[in-house]
Amino acid sequence: MLPPAFYHQLTPEQCIGLFAQLPIPLTIYDAQGDVVGYNQAHIALFELTPEILARGFNMITDPQLAAIGSGELHRRVMQGETIVLPPHLFELHEGGVDVARWTEATYFPLRDGEGRVTHLVAMLRDITETIHQQRSIEQVQQEIDAARQELSEQQTTLEELSTPVIQVWDGILALPLIGAIDSRRAMQVTDSLLTSIGTYQADSVIIDITGIPVVDTQVAAYLLQAARASALLGCDVALVGIGPEIAQTLIQLGVDLQSIHTLANLQAGIAWAFARHGMQVVARKP
Questions:
Q1: CA atoms within 13 Å, Cβ hemisphere of 208
Q2: Where in the chain is the domain with CATH 3.30.750.24?
Q3: According to the CATH classification, is domain 163-276 in 3.30.450.30?
Q4: Is the predicted pLDDT of residue 8 greater than 70, yes or no?
Q5: For residue 257, which of 265, 249, 245, 267 has the smallest C-alpha distance?
Q6: Domain 4-126 class, CATH top level
Q7: Which residues contact 36 (CB under 8 A, 6 or more apart)?
Q8: What is the pTM of this model?
Q9: DSSP secondary structure letters along 241-285
Q10: Is 78 helix (H, G, I), strand (E, B) or coil?
Q11: CATH 3.30.450.20 placement within the chain
């Protein structure tokens, strides 16, 4: 704080010059809320023309400021209170002026030599660019979130399509698997299989791995887990589509598939399931 003697050294013209040249937008209002002075920074901020300045302005009756409670704010400041307002938008569309500014405002009392409050001073900080940047960031984030949601939904759809459980007959399901199987997809396969067993009250499941390019120890473990989980629901499992290369790989890896019925192909698997139900596939006579 400057010593009191400093203020006595300033001439009225210097005080007026200080107010006018200060790079912070300032406005002074009287006890009735009428504006009695703008500095150059405020005029530049809202691009005020001489015509607009000549019309005057009242902070209490202005609809935009009234919407944020300017009448009550003016009353409190005139009683000696300093108030910091949250960011708010002020738009001016008249007299050839078309501006919209986001500002943070501080209202504080101006006192006379005897300490009585005579005026309200509004000090503004232009945060328009900051608000626009924040909104741009929020919009980009929303677009990213929407893209992630879409990708997630597409991933879910692909997973559902990649683990189709087909009802072959009453109590008989087929699960054709295509492509690589990782832990996530294995969980999806098991969940889909167990749900379908419960839905269709199945007691026979044919898992066709013809479309799986590589069956290693991990993939075999996933298949065994699915078979054991199915067995807990009273469902028997047959594994079909084991080619020569995969068979040799499983033998070299020492994978034990004795708990699962293994058959050559889907046709054999369907015949196995039908036999469990006391049925068989018979060729029609010509």
A1: 18
A2: 163-276
A3: no
A4: no
A5: 249
A6: alpha beta
A7: 28, 29, 30, 119
A8: 0.52
A9: ---HHHHHHHHHHT---TTSEEESSHHHHHHHHHHHTT----PPP
A10: helix
A11: 4-126
